[in-house]
């Protein structure tokens, strides 16, 4: 099976080539590009959906993408805290742990 070297700008050698192409061309090419929502807003929506659905595996990538799209860490923490009352305390607590780990990694890189 041919495997992809990147999906959404992230190394993903374990995915089939077609999956990587759909991710790059359709998801990040078509779905993320309409102008009705800015990338910052799309990131907030995506992070909220991932938190609410307890999709922790994809969360670090999209938290970083949100930061890259202009959402600050305090805003992400506030969104996640707000979601605790809608998606459940455990989903929010786990997401806050992921955000904290990401912030630690980013701080370590800057030193």
From TrEMBL:
InterPro entries: 4CMD/NDH-1_regulator (IPR052512), AhpD-like (IPR029032), CMD-like (IPR003779)
Protein name: Carboxymuconolactone decarboxylase family protein
Pfam families (alphabetical): CMD
Biological source species: Pseudomonas edaphica
PANTHER family: 4-CARBOXYMUCONOLACTONE DECARBOXYLASE FAMILY PROTEIN (PTHR33570), BLL4600 PROTEIN (PTHR33570:SF9)
Domain named Carboxymuconolactone decarboxylase-like: residues: 18-100
């Amino acid at each position: 099976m041919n495997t992809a070297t990147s999906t959404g700008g992230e190394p993903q050698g374990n995915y089939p080539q077609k999956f990587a192409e759909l991710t790059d061309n359709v998801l990040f090419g078509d779905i993320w590009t309409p102008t009705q929502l800015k990338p910052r807003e799309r990131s907030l929506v995506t992070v909220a959906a991932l938190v609410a659905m307890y999709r922790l595996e994809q969360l670090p990538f999209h938290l970083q993408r949100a930061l890259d799209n202009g959402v600050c860490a305090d805003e992400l923490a506030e969104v996640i805290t707000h979601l605790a009352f809608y998606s459940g305390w455990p989903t929010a607590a786990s997401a806050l742990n992921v955000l904290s780990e990401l912030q630690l990694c980013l701080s370590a890189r800057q030193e």
